[in-house]
Every structure is written in structure tokens, then in C-alpha cells.
Amino acid sequence: MSVLENWDHWKNFLGDRLNHAQDKGLKDDTINNLAYEIGGYLANEVEAKNEQERVLADLWSVASEDEQRAIANMMVKLVENNSSH
Predict the structure, then answer these.
(1) pLDDT in tens, 48-63
(2) How many domains does the chain have?
(3) Under DSSP, is residue 27 helix (H, G, I), strand (E, B) or coil?
(4) Which of 23, 35, 79, 84 could form a disulfide with 72 if both were Cys (CB 3.0 to 4.6 A apart)?
(5) How far apart are CA 44 and CA 27, in angstroms?
(6) What is the pTM of this model?
(7) Which InterPro entries match (predicted)?
(8) Beta strands in 1-85 (DSSP E)
(9) What CATH number does the domain containing 48 carry?
(10) CA–CA separation, 67 vs 60, rounded Å?
(11) Nearest 5°: phi and psi at 24?
(12) Which of 35, 36, 61 is nearest to 48 (CA)?
């Protein structure tokens, strides 16, 4: 099963990658910029595998660049909060 097919697996995967990036010393701005770039790629190039991803893709498609950056930043916060519990 692909990590994208299950929302909880996807969040855990992102949380692991976020922790790794932070351990390597990446700054928050760099992480947020990467999240924005990845969000754009996923929204434009990868078919949503679950309802949550479909909602994110739909929101991304109607959002301005600032709003897309906000979505990406919220995803970083979401996985950061999940990985800290």
C-alpha cells in the first residue's frame, strides 16, 4: 500500500520527514517553502488517494499563492503536532 492511500500513514510519513529535516538543521522558512513546493506538485501531478487528500487538492486549486503557502504551513504544523504526541 502506498503511503498516500491512508491519511494517518501520510501524516506519519510527513512527520518523520519533518523531524529528519529539523534534526539536519533546516530552518522553518526552508521547511515551509519545501512544503509549498511539494503541495503544488502533489495537487497538480498526483491523484488523491483518500478523501482528505481530495479536500486539500480542491482547496489548493482555488487558493491564491498566499493561501497555498498557508495550507502548506498548516500541514507542517499538523504533522509537527502529531509527531510530538
Answers:
(1) 888 998 999 999 999 9
(2) 1
(3) coil
(4) 35
(5) 26
(6) 0.84
(7) DUF3243, Uncharacterised_YmfJ, YmfJ/YflH_sf
(8) none
(9) 1.10.760
(10) 8
(11) -85, 0
(12) 61
